[in-house]
Design goal:
The chain is an alpha+beta fold. It has one domain. The chain has four helices and five strands; from the N terminus they run E-E-E-H-E-E-H-H-H. The chain has a three-stranded mixed β-sheet with strand order 1-4-5. A hairpin with a 2-residue loop joins strand 2 and strand 3. The protein starts with 9 loop residues before the first strand and ends with a helix.
Length: 86
């Protein structure tokens, strides 16, 4: 993320992406979940993300911050992603 990037708005991730975690994982839908969270992460890094539920001290983050902290977002392929929940 560079200083020249501008905050471009916000995204309501609803039940797909939470702070430091994702929504409920169901193995039958793992590919769809994986594609959905990575589609959200294609938005600009300074986009504010507001999850559908607030389970912690932080109620929003930029997508860049979430990408640095959320283990589910660090999985670069479906196999690695599914292994996080085994």
């Amino acid at each position: 993320m560079t200083d020249s990037e501008e905050r471009l708005g916000f995204s309501s991730a609803r039940d797909t992406l939470f702070i430091d975690m994702i929504g409920r994982f169901e193995r039958a839908y793992s590919e769809s979940i994986f594609k959905s969270i990575h589609a959200i992460m294609k938005l600009p890094g300074l986009t504010l993300m507001y999850p559908g539920h607030d389970y912690g001290d932080v109620s929003s983050r930029t997508l860049w911050e979430e990408g640095q902290a959320n283990p589910s977002l660090m999985a670069r392929d479906l196999r690695s992603f599914v292994s996080l929940f085994s």
